[in-house]
Amino acid sequence: xxxxxRQAATYRVVTIDGPAGAGKSTVARLLAERLGWxxxxxxxxxxxxxxxxxxxxxxLADGESLDRLTADLRVSLPPGQVLLHDEDxxxxxxxxxxxxxxxxxxxxxxVRARLVAWQRAFAEAADTVTEGRDQGTIVFPDAFxxxxxxxxxxxxxxxxxxxxxxxxxxxxxxxxxxxxxxRDARDVARAIAPLKxxxxxxxxxxxxxxIEQVVDLLFHKVGARP
Length: 226
Known about the structure:
Number of helices: 9
Strand order of the largest sheet: 2-6-1-7-8
Helix content: 40-55%
Structural class: alpha/beta
Radius of gyration: 17 Å
Number of strands: 8
Distance between the termini: 33 Å
């Protein structure tokens, strides 16, 4: 993944980790815009690897094959886009099949190591707001500011259900909640980079708050730090 970096400069990183449905991706993107920083969507990285693997008909359970494929990918993340070999795959990586299969890339140690390197290279070029599940614990342990954004499971499932319905998906709220519980359990129990707040992360419960309120809250917290 070719990303320009400036060796002499030290840039700040704000990490936003949390479970699915907590709103961290939207919050991170809007916070980055408000700060004038770059936004790093780590989930998009795992999704683009998964999309490439599905297209190449690679066995997702074969870690060595998945790693070899990842090593040959050329991925870039210009603002608002995800490019795979110069093809804009921003919409394609949001396909339900990609979402379902992305856990294989996330659970592959070799692929995760490559993507951690991509993420760190991205943040070498500018001040960055990044979101994921291991940003404050594994990828950027010395981040300028760390947040762990969460909400009740009912709130998170309602948000996800509304998002899916807005896309035209006919899915029941109970199904979304059951899938979310399975994903939460898998993320917490993952042997590699399990979901957990960093020891020095600030917990932010977004239950009952809208996106603008959460962004305002984090913006002021980032600005309050010397």
